[in-house]
């Protein structure tokens, strides 16, 4: 059991006894923050404090010790490393293995399926149709990932990173949307389920975009694209993954080694090594042209329902249903603020049953937030535009950054009214405190 599981156990015991953190802290002669850290899994009480907790919560010391010492659950993270032709994926895989192996991870690699098939005689030009080839590739990709998923659960290590050299959504860039959806439907799945089955997506931009002098076909026998075709394909792959809640685009603004260092930094931040920092800026914008957004190939629409849960003073807990057209995935997110721009954020997927159960812990003082999000990949950056049904002339645009001083390249058709990163009035948590009619009064003047 991880610290967070033991922390949740202590939290439930305290709630069952109708005690406040302040009361527990007073009884044990510790600070409120110490109790909060125990319940967040950031630290554990020593033996003397466990003895006191057993009396306070009316449970045996043996039961507390058993819960504390229970074997840690395995933490399995599954990411996709994708990119355009000649982006540096092969070298990046070696860097990822060396970097995270040294940090205690068992790193598993799901090899690129297209290269496997094409190098062994199964290719779009050897099959009767491209549709047949893409069907075979998706079937093999899914089978391989299932094997690696199951194998990861059997490893002795409790920190496992599965790296997929491309994922299911890469196929979308090589076929018509209607064909891609048809294949998934025949396989009993859908695009949202497949896209968001990965925990994070990291896209390395093709050398054909910004480093044309080093673009080459020599290091991959399965690659046939010209530089122009590579640029077009790079855009298509980014568009295919746009809509994922954690897509990062690593461009060619630096030399190659620095590019890979930026990739490792992004993956490490996502994994929480040492802590999962989120650097985010937020802007109030004039209401965008939704039809224009929906017609853009690099923009994806998702519906979000966000419910806040009862939590400690320094931690924000929320659950989300995220998807569209009846296909939804569910998430639990916990955030702790450390500065105006930086927050420590952890997130995990939920089953539908877990989501429904957590709804019972909803904070009744806060309203449920409903919004439509347009995920836009533009200028090698990833923007999220939130449309609230209560607003008619404005919207919120957010962007997560690699560093606090990163330059933001806002698309020309987005008109910013003002930055609201540090304005609590435009934070979802604060907006959840207001009645819809009060939200409507917030207008651009």
Question: What this model shows, in words?
Answer:
With 445 residues, the protein is α+β, with helices and mostly antiparallel strands. It folds into 3 domains: 3-69, Orthogonal Bundle (434 Repressor (Amino-terminal Domain)); 75-271, Rossmann fold (3-Layer(aba) Sandwich); 279-440, Hypothetical Protein Pfu-838710-001 (Beta Barrel), CATH 2.40.320.10. The protein is built from 16 helices and 14 strands. The chain has helices at residues 3-16, 21-28, 32-40, 47-56, 61-69, 89-101, 113-119, 130-153, 177-186, 191-195, 227-241, 256-271, 290-294, 352-358, 428-431, 436-440, and strands spanning 75-83, 106-110, 159-165, 200-204, 247-250, 277-286, 299-308, 316-324, 327-337, 342-350, 369-378, 381-387, 394-400, 416-419. The strands form 2 sheets. It has an 8-stranded antiparallel barrel. It has a 5-stranded parallel β-sheet with strand order 2-3-1-4-5, with helices on both faces. A hairpin with a 2-residue loop joins strand 8 and strand 9 (327-337). Helix 1 crosses helix 3, helix 2 (21-28) crosses helix 3 and helix 6 packs across helix 12. The mean pLDDT is 88.
């Amino acid at each position: 059991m991880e610290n967070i599981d033991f922390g949740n156990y202590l939290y439930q015991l305290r709630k069952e006894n109708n005690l406040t953190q302040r009361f527990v802290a007073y009884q044990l002669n510790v600070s409120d923050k110490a109790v909060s850290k125990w319940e967040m899994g950031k630290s554990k009480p020593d033996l003397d404090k466990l003895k006191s907790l057993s009396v306070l919560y009316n449970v045996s010391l043996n039961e507390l010790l058993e819960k504390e010492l229970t074997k840690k659950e395995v933490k399995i993270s599954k990411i996709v490393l994708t990119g355009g032709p000649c982006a540096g994926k092969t070298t990046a895989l070696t860097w990822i293995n060396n970097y995270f192996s040294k940090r205690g991870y068992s790193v598993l690699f799901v090899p690129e399926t297209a290269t496997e098939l094409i190098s062994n005689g199964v290719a779009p030009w050897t099959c009767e149709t491209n549709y047949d080839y893409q069907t075979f590739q998706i079937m093999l990709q899914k089978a391989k990932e299932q094997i690696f998923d199951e194998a990861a659960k059997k490893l002795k290590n409790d920190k496992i990173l599965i790296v997929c050299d491309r994922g299911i959504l890469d196929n979308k860039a090589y076929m018509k949307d209607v064909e891609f959806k048809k294949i998934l439907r025949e396989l009993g799945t859908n695009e949202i389920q497949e896209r968001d089955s990965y925990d994070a997506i990291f896209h390395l931009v093709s050398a054909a975009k910004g480093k044309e002098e080093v673009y080459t076909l020599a290091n991959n026998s399965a690659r046939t694209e010209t530089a122009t075709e590579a640029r077009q394909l790079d855009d298509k792959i980014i568009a295919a993954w746009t809509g994922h809640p954690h897509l990062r685009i690593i461009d060619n603004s630096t030399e190659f080694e620095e590019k890979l260092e930026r990739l490792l930094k992004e993956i490490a931040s996502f994994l929480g090594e040492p802590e999962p920092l989120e650097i985010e800026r937020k802007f109030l914008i004039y209401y965008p042209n939704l039809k224009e957004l929906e017609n853009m190939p690099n923009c994806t629409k998702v519906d979000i329902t966000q419910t806040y849960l009862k939590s400690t003073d320094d931690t924000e807990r929320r659950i989300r249903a995220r998807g569209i057209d009846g296909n939804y995935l569910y998430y639990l997110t916990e955030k702790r603020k450390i500065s105006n721009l930086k927050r420590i954020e952890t997130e995990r997927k939920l089953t539908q049953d877990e989501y429904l159960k957590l709804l019972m812990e909803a904070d009744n003082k806060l309203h449920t937030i409903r919004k439509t999000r347009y995920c836009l990949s533009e200028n090698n950056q990833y923007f999220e535009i939130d449309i609230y049904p209560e607003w008619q002339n404005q919207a919120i645009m957010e962007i997560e950054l690699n560093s606090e001083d990163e330059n933001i390249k806002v698309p020309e058709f987005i008109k910013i009214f003002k930055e609201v990163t540090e304005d609590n009035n435009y934070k979802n948590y604060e907006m959840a405190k207001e009645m819809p009619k009060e939200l409507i009064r917030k207008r651009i003047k």
